[in-house]
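In the previous chapter we treated chains in isolation. Here, by contrast, the input contains four separate entities that must be folded as one system, with a combined length of 1840 residues.
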Amino acid sequence: MTDKLHEECGLFAMFDNDGYDTARITYAGLFAMQHRGQQSAGIAVNNDRKVTLYKDNGLVHEVFSDEVINSLKGRMAIGHVRYSADGEQDVLNAQPLVSRYIKGPLAVATNGTLTNYHELKHQLEQEGAIFQTTNETEIIMHLLARARMKTGRVETGLAEIMKNQLRGAYALVMMSPQKLIACRDPKGMKPLCMGKIENSYVFASETCALDTVRAEFVRELDPGEIVIVDVNGVRSIRDNCQDRKCSSMCVFEYLYFARSDSIIEGMSVHKARKLTGKILSETYPVDADIVAAVPDSGVDAAIGYAEASGIPYAKALMINRYVGRTFIQPTQEQRTTAVRLKINVIRDTVKDKKIVLVDDSIVRGTTCAKLVAMLKEAGAKEVHMRISAPPFIWPCYFGTDIPSREHLMACNYTVDEICNMIGADSLGFMPVERLPEVVPDINCGYCDGCFTGKYPYEHE
Amino acid sequence: MTDKLHEECGLFAMFDNDGYDTARITYAGLFAMQHRGQQSAGIAVNNDRKVTLYKDNGLVHEVFSDEVINSLKGRMAIGHVRYSADGEQDVLNAQPLVSRYIKGPLAVATNGTLTNYHELKHQLEQEGAIFQTTNETEIIMHLLARARMKTGRVETGLAEIMKNQLRGAYALVMMSPQKLIACRDPKGMKPLCMGKIENSYVFASETCALDTVRAEFVRELDPGEIVIVDVNGVRSIRDNCQDRKCSSMCVFEYLYFARSDSIIEGMSVHKARKLTGKILSETYPVDADIVAAVPDSGVDAAIGYAEASGIPYAKALMINRYVGRTFIQPTQEQRTTAVRLKINVIRDTVKDKKIVLVDDSIVRGTTCAKLVAMLKEAGAKEVHMRISAPPFIWPCYFGTDIPSREHLMACNYTVDEICNMIGADSLGFMPVERLPEVVPDINCGYCDGCFTGKYPYEHE
Amino acid sequence: MTDKLHEECGLFAMFDNDGYDTARITYAGLFAMQHRGQQSAGIAVNNDRKVTLYKDNGLVHEVFSDEVINSLKGRMAIGHVRYSADGEQDVLNAQPLVSRYIKGPLAVATNGTLTNYHELKHQLEQEGAIFQTTNETEIIMHLLARARMKTGRVETGLAEIMKNQLRGAYALVMMSPQKLIACRDPKGMKPLCMGKIENSYVFASETCALDTVRAEFVRELDPGEIVIVDVNGVRSIRDNCQDRKCSSMCVFEYLYFARSDSIIEGMSVHKARKLTGKILSETYPVDADIVAAVPDSGVDAAIGYAEASGIPYAKALMINRYVGRTFIQPTQEQRTTAVRLKINVIRDTVKDKKIVLVDDSIVRGTTCAKLVAMLKEAGAKEVHMRISAPPFIWPCYFGTDIPSREHLMACNYTVDEICNMIGADSLGFMPVERLPEVVPDINCGYCDGCFTGKYPYEHE
Amino acid sequence: MTDKLHEECGLFAMFDNDGYDTARITYAGLFAMQHRGQQSAGIAVNNDRKVTLYKDNGLVHEVFSDEVINSLKGRMAIGHVRYSADGEQDVLNAQPLVSRYIKGPLAVATNGTLTNYHELKHQLEQEGAIFQTTNETEIIMHLLARARMKTGRVETGLAEIMKNQLRGAYALVMMSPQKLIACRDPKGMKPLCMGKIENSYVFASETCALDTVRAEFVRELDPGEIVIVDVNGVRSIRDNCQDRKCSSMCVFEYLYFARSDSIIEGMSVHKARKLTGKILSETYPVDADIVAAVPDSGVDAAIGYAEASGIPYAKALMINRYVGRTFIQPTQEQRTTAVRLKINVIRDTVKDKKIVLVDDSIVRGTTCAKLVAMLKEAGAKEVHMRISAPPFIWPCYFGTDIPSREHLMACNYTVDEICNMIGADSLGFMPVERLPEVVPDINCGYCDGCFTGKYPYEHE
């Protein structure tokens, strides 16, 4: 638990061939991917060309009541959870978006960021296009409607704009009047996998959603692949596919975004995180009594650290499970603090102990400093902070909402200075050069631009 | 995480001498004790004899907005979170209760159960009393108003009804027009402690609430003690106090109810739970690869088991942190289940492993059976279930909402039968005879009636 | 339409012998009497001794949804609409009140004011009673519970407290576990009538409610009468009944409170109001072109004035029917005013005309002044104001919420001064000495204390 | 009060030069025109090129709270109340619509119907346009964005699409980034007038809105005129203007839609309605005791009938002013009916009387039949029904939501048959050939297609 970075949306989709309640399964799938976006949730269903959409700001379980889910009937469904990188809160920008184009309703949900958004928008405006949102998905819909008039089919239209117009990181699910379509950008920067429930097909950003709806994992979409499902079955357009080894899965999915029970491009997220703990214990060993995690973000790496070092894993911090997004923030002059409302020290565990404390990131450092202080106040002899990600010092152009450099500790201070500022006895970050060891099972390339400044695409 | 037993309310109170925002501090205190009651929350403040009350069904953060808290101004405040044992959902029964008696407003909140409730109520009815609620607190208010006419003071009235009329387990906080009063029943069955913030006084059911509002722990109230705080300071009435060693703190607070970062009657709850793990590892050793917890209920004991046995602690189950009380329950015919929406297996951890799985209780056994099945399905070789509480086989007359015997597995089946039913390879419960070892630091007696059938009071 | 005086509650009750939906009929009855109270509405039903209550602030149609009405099942029902004279808005004070006394649930709703409220309350407090509301109905419930213990029956208890304890104006409907009971105070100051639907009985404050639910009018309750309906039929306790001619029906019901389609104590309210118009035309004749009403409050009297004088009735003012209670009040600096949002002049009607403008009262005079100004601005040559009630210059102790004397124009200025202040060319009030001519068909005495200062009861 | 026909939206707009609160004035203006649309309400403000929109389903006072109005700051504002002819309830279709086009935000609100909607939409779709609504306003916005790219200015773009593309009846207000623009269609079928508040300009569908905000009436827009207001003042584009005498104001505005205090194209609505009463009294004289109105729809014509015939105007029916849109509809088996909840007979007035009962229309006849029955049941000797509009027997293509012919009594039965069916003693409709006498002061032509089948435009 630290000043959180924000994840960038989760996608789910289903084409039913067995009589399932697609909206209810989509709900469960989105629910499993709530960590990917807590700002808004939406589901659109297509019932024999009639599309019904329900979306609102809030968590999945807040947005959808049983009554609402019951009102969403359709053979196809797509769903979306959102975190809006630019703080845009207008519910109009929540996804899926639904428009009518010449062939009927079109519903689209995307995860990602177009790096040439402004260029594409300006071009459309010149042609007299009007816009309801500030959403990249709407740009894609305009381009699709136009490309469809040219190529005669919506999926060939999609292939064309992927090739000639869209630049950036994106995964996308959409429903035309009769087809469910899913795709990943040619660089494969965002995850999207396919599963099967009996004879029906589902798509999800993470495998944890497949597990939750008890779908069998089929495979991940290839970078650049377009999968089309309709009454005739499943087929792919692979015109934009490239060599998988040249693709660029966001490495931050493993370190931070994804749920630890997901498997992405062949690599277990939990295993990746345990490996960070192992590497941290090798790189920054310490003579300590216990290894403890900042709940819940540091747990996987802390277990890895404990296992590798032989120092016992312990529970030093207690998290209040009832902390919601909406609890009243304590004001400056209050007795308590947001951190204290969320986390308390277990005195019994920490008194007179030398502690390795593991978390997944330090952004602004304020939370971290408070936790170290609370531990010391409760009698901890030493607190050694270990961070399971390298310091991010570069911007992300592909959807991760990293604070500007002036707010990033790692951009402005040395590790020693940061250690001092948070009051720890030592501090160690995951070494960037050992990142390849964290994802040994990955079956593609990855992007670590936020740590290295090297990106797969040029950016605007 | 199992079919949950329900906790029985949390209390918080404050008398301010420093200009603090009493409602906001009470909010934070209740927030820290949300685990003690999720059905309703309420705060009453007394602003120079004018009492304002706000209560509603819901979690603390749902019931109270910033605006509501701002509207609650007063030098004294009392707060309450409730779980209603009898399923009564009428918000009228939410606490605190506020009435007007001859001296002005009276606000009372209680945690506990009167065993002679029906007898007291009948007697009052005979005298023409009328009732708004089915709440024991209202009985206490009637008795108080009458006793006050007799003894001349509300606190002496309270001492008298504690001596002559109230029987059972209770802790109580109340505000008369000018005094804040707190007390524990003579057997001390429910916890209540006192803290200090500068020159101001707070009371809370658990110390975790004191930590959260950064109050200094002063002491626990003695069994039978009445503490009165007013502008003249703090004083006690100890007429109903008895030998502390004869008191009967509910042992279930340590095993189940309380937050693991609380300290009750001198004993750390987290330490008690770790000790159950140690005892389980001694009593039911097993040759296993990993020790894992059912999140979050089994974590403390699992850590204790791992530490004592030397088997590594691992994360085998992933809990979805976004599960609220209100998410849509999957229906019978759905693909997913409530358990699956909440918990998923981390395949990587469990494949081909022999697992010790620790939880704090088995009530109906259905959840447990599903988790064992999920682990096996994911490749676990063996699953050895360890439960950190003894089987409860007796009713509780003092506020714990234990299902009727017909629903309690332990009343109807042998341990072997239960083991079979949940599909585990072995099953071990905390042995009841070793309970004293679980609470080595406790400074008073305790009640273990739900395990032994031996109670401190006769019951109706 | 003027600065309104506030009415004092409407009552409805039903005992079903035919299988009717009592809550739905009570809803319709309350709906018809919405003019008697717009602050809160409530219905309690008794389903074989189980009482369910639903009440809230708001209009009848706002408080009750179809779903809520469907949840209110019972053979007996009582309902209430409230205007709270003392501005108390706490929904706890909304009626009916429901308590449990020794025989089970008791639900009571009253219309009126006890003049010895404080005396009764103090006496109860001395006996240790506690109170939830500041409501007179709760006093009655306490007294009833005590009297019932003494007399053995709730209806004899009611007869006793009517005789010995309750003083003031009240009509009341109540449900004990098995009986529906209705009564009027011995002076008969508040209306209450009985109707029949097939073999079922209903009670209502006004006959318009009987018409709305298509009940046959049976009769009005006698002053002091208690009517009991149960499975054995209907019976009365008449111990507190007196000579009807000595009773004191509130004359303001005819002039102001009641709906003009109601008949109270034999006298048509519409006819009474038309007669005020006739008397005004005789007392203050004027050479005018048209007679117009302030909508809607002056319409009946204006029609009477027009008919008696031979001057044509015209529509000079247009009321906006969408004005609700909650529209945004224009602020001082706004272009428009509350009066203008509600009423506009029909220029075509008033240009170059001499107008008689009729309303039912002048309280503070501000609205009246604005209307006269608007008429003149639209070209009216003369505006002659006629008021169909005498000036009230005395307080009401029985439930009518008359502003304090300092706010009553008629207490502080002569008629000429008022005429000047409102900018009218002449002004005439209904002469108090001709009030008997307004209610020629009334079959009892009446109270005109607010005009004359002569009251049927002493007051505290 | 009858089975209502539905009105077709009201428009309001303001360009402020004096520092007024434009949203609050727009609110008041819409409030005055609530009768033109009760389904949704919306206001958009333009604060230095930043447009803020708030709209929702509901009445003006339900949609807008003080807080919402305060959040709408801007020098320009446009507002809209809607009745949706096609029953579309999606709030997306509520107006104003706001889009972004190349020059920034564009907000548009319209009243009316394009007869070539489908043709225009299809053409846009062919060009790859996508749509969010099923709203004609969105079509206009697409055409405007395209025409603006061609003509270089939004107002010249508007002139061009009015000339070449838009066909049908419409009035429109819009805000470009810097201009407030209002127009009426070349046939002038929908009303729109201009007013002034000091140096600021307002536009409204009806003059009653100008009166309510105390704006001075300046003039009506000419048919086909475009008025542009910006910081440089007011100017018109008159390229689409034609001879006013050839225009076609909807005559139903006088008979039914407009508020009786409005003046449209020089003709007082109240006067027009009184004239219908006069004509009815001449055409269908009757020897009666009283003339009464169905409240409130028949009041103006009834007053005209009474005045012309010399028969006294009386109040025979009492309307319940608290009937909202949302009250619980009585079910079939209920004691009461929707009509009875709304209207009750004043027995005193009708007993033994011969009554002329006036209303403005008969659509399905059911309400009318119930009222006649209620009057007879209350003792009326004769009931002579007079309807102040001719029977509509033709569809309207320009926005009036007339039921299909199978539901229109007048299409399926003779006047005698209808008279029989409603149980009246006689029945007379306003003669269509005397319509010119109803609008003697009108300064333009009018459309009476719904009575005659003769329309100003061809229709699709």
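Chain A touches chain D at residues 98-102, 106, 125-132, 141-142, 145-146, 148-149 (CB under 8 Å). The longest strand of chain A covers residues 104-114. Compare these points with the single-chain example from earlier in the chapter.
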